[in-house]
Amino acid sequence: MTLTALTGATRGYSDPRLSPIVERLDDFVAADPDYSFQLCAYHAGELVLDAWGGPHLSADSLIVPFSVTKNTIGLSIGLLFQRGILNPDERVASYWPEFAAKGKQDITVRMLLSHQAGLPQAQPSLSWAEVFDDHLGATALARSRPLWHPGSAFGYHALTIGNLASELVFRASGRTLREFYEEELRAPLGIDFYLGLPPRLDERRVPVLPIIQPENEPPAAWSSPLTAVAMSMSGPPVDFANDEASWRFGHPSGSGIGSARALARLFAATVTGLEGAPPLFEVDTIDVLSQQQVHGYDEVLGQSDRAHSIVFQKPTKSMPFGGHRAFGHDGAAGAFACADPDAGLAFAYTVARGPWPGGADPRAIAIAAELGRTLNA
Amino acid sequence: MTLTALTGATRGYSDPRLSPIVERLDDFVAADPDYSFQLCAYHAGELVLDAWGGPHLSADSLIVPFSVTKNTIGLSIGLLFQRGILNPDERVASYWPEFAAKGKQDITVRMLLSHQAGLPQAQPSLSWAEVFDDHLGATALARSRPLWHPGSAFGYHALTIGNLASELVFRASGRTLREFYEEELRAPLGIDFYLGLPPRLDERRVPVLPIIQPENEPPAAWSSPLTAVAMSMSGPPVDFANDEASWRFGHPSGSGIGSARALARLFAATVTGLEGAPPLFEVDTIDVLSQQQVHGYDEVLGQSDRAHSIVFQKPTKSMPFGGHRAFGHDGAAGAFACADPDAGLAFAYTVARGPWPGGADPRAIAIAAELGRTLNA
Amino acid sequence: MTLTALTGATRGYSDPRLSPIVERLDDFVAADPDYSFQLCAYHAGELVLDAWGGPHLSADSLIVPFSVTKNTIGLSIGLLFQRGILNPDERVASYWPEFAAKGKQDITVRMLLSHQAGLPQAQPSLSWAEVFDDHLGATALARSRPLWHPGSAFGYHALTIGNLASELVFRASGRTLREFYEEELRAPLGIDFYLGLPPRLDERRVPVLPIIQPENEPPAAWSSPLTAVAMSMSGPPVDFANDEASWRFGHPSGSGIGSARALARLFAATVTGLEGAPPLFEVDTIDVLSQQQVHGYDEVLGQSDRAHSIVFQKPTKSMPFGGHRAFGHDGAAGAFACADPDAGLAFAYTVARGPWPGGADPRAIAIAAELGRTLNA
After folding, report:
1. What are the tens digits of pLDDT across the range B233-288?
2. What are chain C's partners, defined as 3 or more CB pairs within 8 angstroms?
3. For residues A360 and A319, is the Cβ–Cβ distance under 8 A?
4. Strands of the C345-351 sheet, one edge to the other
5. Around Cβ B85, how many Cβ atoms within 10 Å?
C-alpha cells in the first residue's frame, strides 16, 4: 500500500481509505489554532496513518504523554510473563519478601498490576524524592498497610504502580523496569520512546501545555476521598511532565517521553506484527494481557465504568476505543495509545494541550475505534 | 379448591381469589388482538391458575421460551447437588480435567454456573455446529482463556452456559444434561417440556413471533463490548427459536420447548410440592439454589442490577418477581418461570410475541409477585 | 486552650475557633423549637466543643443512638486484635466450630464483621427473644445458610452483627461483647455509655422521639428485597430504642445508651489520645480498623456508595465525614460518632428526633468534616 502525502492542515501520510479521518483532523486544526497533535496507526503491521498538525508538534517532536507511559510497563510485564520470569498468579512476596508486611502476603502479581493492592499512596505519604528513586518509593510502599483490603476493590495507583512494578521486575529479573524496557524493547525494536531522555535528544523535546479550564465550567464531578491522597506527595510540588528531573528519570507511571510514531510502532512490534515480522508476543501472551481484571468503580478516581487488564485499560461503554481484546492506556493531558489484536491495529496519539477536563482526548478514542472498523470493512 | 372456568377473553380456570389478575389478562387481550399467552400457577402444590388467550397459543401449544429453558439446567443441577454427584464448591477441573487449561484451574462449579467464568464465547468464536453438539462446543471452551479473570466479574453466558453445564453433568454423571433432565425430571414427573422435541409432538409446536421495534424507538440502551461477541457464532445465522435443528436438539440454554403448564408443574414438583406429594428438593437444596451468587453489572448484557443464584435469576429492584428466596429465569422473547418457596408459588408464562425491547415481559413479572401476595394474604 | 462558655441557644463550651459552627447550631435550634442535640468533639486529645441545646436533651442526658452503638463493637474488636486474641484473617469457625455449617466454613473474621457473611437474618427468621439473648440468636444464625454466597456481596447486618460479634468475642475471650466492653473499655476509661443501663442511672435516660415523615413526602427510595427480611423478627414488635427490655440488655447492634460526651471521649481515648495520655490503640491497630473492606451496593439497604471497614462505616462521597483514615458509625435516628486519626479528631452527636428519612443527620456529618478542617488549618 502506497500512502498518500497529505496536503491540508494535517501533515503526513495516509492510506487513502482514511481520508474521512484526515478531513476530521483538518477540521480540528481549523477550529483551534492552538491544537497540536501527532497521530500514528499501523494496520496488519503496515503504516496506514502518520499525521501531525498545529504549531506545537512536528512528526519528530518528543513529548511526555503522562500515563500513556504506563503502556511500557504493561508490555514489559507481558514479555516477562512470556519468558516465564514473572507469573501473574504468583504472590508478589515470593519475588519480594519484604512486600508481605502489613497484610499484603496474599497479593498476587495480577492483583498488584491491576490496581487492587490498596497502595495508591504509602503510609505516611511518599516524598517526591522517594517517587523518583528506583527503590526508595517501593520500600516505603512495602512497609505500608493497604488503604483497602487487597482484592476487595481497585483504584488507580496513578504514581505508585510504577514504583511497585519496577521493584517487582527488579526482584524477578535483576533489572529495574526502566532498564528492562530499554534493553528488551526500546533498543532492539528501535522505538523512539524513552524512560529517561538521553541528553542528545533534548532539543526534540516539546513541553506539555496546561489544560485550560473553560470559564464558568465547574471542576470535574469525579474525585473521591482518595484522589488527593494518591497525588499529594510530601515536599515541594513537581511538574511531572515538564521538570527535567522527571523526564530525565523517566518514571514508568507517567514521565516517559517520545512520539506517537514510536508508541504505535511499539504496539505493532509486540502485538500485531510489524512490516512482515511476526509480533513479539504469542497469542496467549496477548490473551493474558487483554483479559479484564477489574471493572467498575475506581476508588481513587471516584469514577464508574473503569476497567483494567494487567496494567492496561480496557474498552468500556464510556471509553469505547476498540473490540473486546483491545488494550491500551491514556494520559492525564489527552494522549492515548492502544492495540486491538482482532482489528490488527496499533494506534497512538499525542496532544500538546489536551481538552478539559483531562484524560484521553475523546477525539482520539473515536478515531481509534473508527480506524478498526474502516480498515476491516 | 374448585377452580372457576373462565368466561372472558382469557380462557382456562382460576381460583376465585385471582379474578383481578384474570381481568387484567382480559384487558391485555382486548388491547392487542395479536397478544397470545399461556400462564399457569400452582400454590402450595395445587393448581390455582391455568389460563391462556389470544390467536396464537392454546393450552396445549408447545413454544420455545428461549432462556426460560435454563430453568431445566438449574433444576437438574439442584438434583445432582442433592444426590452428591456434583459439589458446588468443587473445582470444575476435578470433574473435567481439560477445563483447567489457560488459567481456569480454580474455577468452581458455583462460579461456572453463575456466569463468572469469563466464557461467554470461545477464542476463536464457536461455530453453530459446535454450539449444537453435546461435546464440541464445550471442548472449544475448555481450550479458551477467559475474557475476564474468573471470579472478578460476571456476564451472561447466554449460549455457552448450556454447553458448559452439559459437559460438566456428563463428566460427573455419565449423561448429558439433556439426557439427565429427560430421565430424572421430565419423564418421571410427567412434564410437557422437552430438551429435544419428539417428532410425534411436532404438530403442537407454535413458532415464536419476532418482537416488533416501535417506530421512532431507539435500540435498547444497554449492551456492552461483549454483547455481540457472546451472540455471534461463526457461520450462517441460525433462528434459535424456530429452526428445526435448534428445537429438535433442545439446547439447554434456550431451545427447549413446552407449555407454561409444564414449566409451572416442574417448579411445583421440585420446589413447593405437587398435589399432596412433597417437593423433590429438600429444604437445604432449595436454600442452595436460592442463594445469590452475583449481583450488579453484567459484563455481557451491559446492564446493572442483574442477579443470579446458581444458574437461576434472583429477584432485584428492577425485576421484582418474588421474595428473597425466589428464583427463576426469563427468556429473550418475554417468557418467564419461577418458584417462590416462601410464598409456596410455582409460576410460568409464555408469550408468542413478546414486548419490545425483549427479556421477561413486565406483565408476567408483576403477576408473579402479585400471585405470591394474594395467595398468602 | 481555655474554652469559652456559650451564651446563645446552644449551651456548653467551645474553642473560640469554632464559633461559626456554634452559630450554625444556634440557627438549627432557632429554626425548630423541637430540635434537641448533644455534640462533643476532642482535638489532639483536648476537649474543643461540648455543646447541647433544645428542650429534650441536656449535657448529661443518656439516649439510645441506635447503631452508633456499633462503635462499641468496632472498638472492642480493635482491642482484641491488638492483644492477639482475635485475628481478622482467621476463619470464624476456628473460634466457633458450629459456625462452619451450611457453607460458612471459609468465612473469616474480617468478612463476618464487614457484613459480607450473608446473615442479615436467620433461616427461619429470629424471634426477638433470640435477638436479646447472649447466645440463642447466634446459635440460630450458625445453623443458617447465608442468603448470598459469603464474600460475593455485602449487606448491612443491622441487628445480627451484634449477636454474631458477641458470640465470636465470647468464643475467643470467654466474655460476651457486652462484658468485654464494660470491663476493658467503659469502666477503665470512665465512659458514660453503657451496653445495659445500670438502674441507678435510669433517671438520666431520655427517650428517642420518632422521626416525622413530612406530608406529601414519599417513603425513602431505597430498600431492597432484603430490607424487610433483615428487620422482621418473629413475634410481637419491639421498640428497640425505648423498650426497657432493649436498653437494659444493651444490644451491641443498637440499644446501647449514653451521651455524646461519652462517645467522643471513647474515641479520643482509643484513637487520638486523651488529655495527654497516648491512645489505647497502636498506629497499626488504627490502620487495621480504618482499612476499607467493602464499598458499593448494600444488598440489605438497597443503597449504593456504602462503605465499611471492620464494623465501622467509612467516609464516602455521599457521607463525607472525614479523611481517608476516618471511621465511625451512624444510627437510624440521626446520631453519629467517629474518629479521624489524621485530623486528630474524636466526634459524637446525638439528637432526640432525627430528620427524615433517617440515618446520620447530615448536619452532623458536615460539622464533623468541618471540625477536621478548621482545627488543622
Report:
1. 998 889 999 999 999 999 999 999 999 999 999 999 999 999 999 999 999 999 99
2. A, B
3. yes
4. C4-5, C11-14, C46-53, C37-43, C345-351, C336-340, C327-330
5. 15
- A340 to chain B: which residues are within 8 Å by CB? none
Q: For residue B329, how many C-alpha atoms fall within 13 Å in the half-sphere facing its CB? A: 27
- Categorize the per-residue pLDDT at B219 as very low, low, confident or very high, splitting at 50, 70 and 90: low
| Contact (Cβ atoms closer than 8 angstroms) between residue A73 and residue A251 | no
Average pLDDT estimate for A33-50? 97
**What DSSP string runs through C21-83?**
HHHHHHHHHHH-TT--EEEEEEETTEEEEEEEESSS--TT-BB--GGGGHHHHHHHHHHHHHT
Please give the ipTM for the structure prediction: 0.95
* CB contact set of A312 (below 8 Å; sequence gap of 6+): A70, A71, A74, A289, A290, A327, A328, A329
SS3 track for B283-327: HHHHHHHHCECEEEEECCCCEEEEEECCCCECCECCECCCCCCCE
CA distances for B144 relative to A170, B105, B125, B140, B150, angstroms: 32, 12, 10, 7, 12
Mean pLDDT of chain B: 96
Count of helices and strands (H, E) across chain A:
14, 11
Beta bridge partners of residue A327, listed in sequence order:
A339
Supply the pLDDT for residue B215: 85
pTM for this model (two decimals) = 0.96
Query: Which residues are within 8 A (CB) of B19 and not within 5 positions of it... i.e. 6 or more apart?
Result: none
Which among A371, A262, A268, A282 has a CA at the least distance from the CA of A323?
A: A371
In which band, very low, low, confident or very high, does the pLDDT at C294 lie, cut at 50, 70 and 90? very high
Confidence of residue C219 (pLDDT cuts 50, 70, 90): low
CA dihedral A15, A19, A21, A24 (to 10 degrees): 150
What's the CA dihedral at B156, B160, B164, B166 to 10 degrees? 110
User: Residue C110 belongs to what H/E stretch?
Assistant: helix C109-112
Which among B110, B284, B317 is the nearest to C224, CB-wise? B317
Interface probe for B, chosen from A82, A292, A309, A314 (most Cβ of B below 10 Å), is A292
What does the alpha-carbon distance between residue A167 and residue A160 come to, in Å, rounded to a whole number? Answer: 11
- What is the percentage of chain C residues whose pLDDT exceeds 70? 99
Q: Is the pLDDT of residue B218 over 80?
A: no
pLDDT on residue C1: 65
What is d(CA B42, CA B348) in angstroms, rounded to the nearest whole number?
9
| Gap from A323 CA to chain B (nearest CA, Å) | 7
How does pLDDT run across B119-139, given as a tens digit for each residue? 999 999 999 999 999 999 999
CA C134 to the chain's CA centroid? 19
Comparing CA positions, the residue from A163, A162, A166, A186 lying closest to residue A176 is A166
Query: Which chain A residues are Cβ-neighbours of C317 within 8 angstroms?
Result: 224-225, 302
- Give me the amino acid identity at C250: G
Q: Tell me, what's the pLDDT at A76?
A: 98
